[in-house]
Write a structure and sequence with these properties.
- This protein is 80% helix and 0% strand.
- The chain is an all-alpha fold.
- α2 crosses α3.
- The longest helix has 41 residues.
């Protein structure tokens, strides 16, 4: 369980670093070697973020499957029944 919390907590910093890498690559001022190294790092970060998001999606699907949808249904308005 601690591993999951660590992975989830690492999502935001990973996403921020990925955004930094994209910015650096878009500038176009890096050498080919530097660009390739950053691209490789970015691909790894992208995969890590995707794994965390996929896990979160599964968790939501499990919660919804357990009847959590009732918590998301809007309260009926004070109007007359349909």
């Amino acid at each position: 369980m601690a591993r999951k919390k660590t992975e989830t907590a690492a999502f935001e910093p990973s996403l921020k670093r990925l955004e930094e890498i994209v910015g650096l690559l878009e500038e176009g001022s890096l050498s080919l070697e530097e660009s390739l190294a950053l691209f490789e790092e970015g691909v790894g970060l992208s995969r890590k973020c995707l794994d965390v998001l996929t896990g979160a999606e599964r968790k939501v699907e499990q919660l919804v499957g357990k009847g959590a949808t009732a918590a998301f249904e809007p309260e009926p308005s004070g109007g007359e029944p349909a």
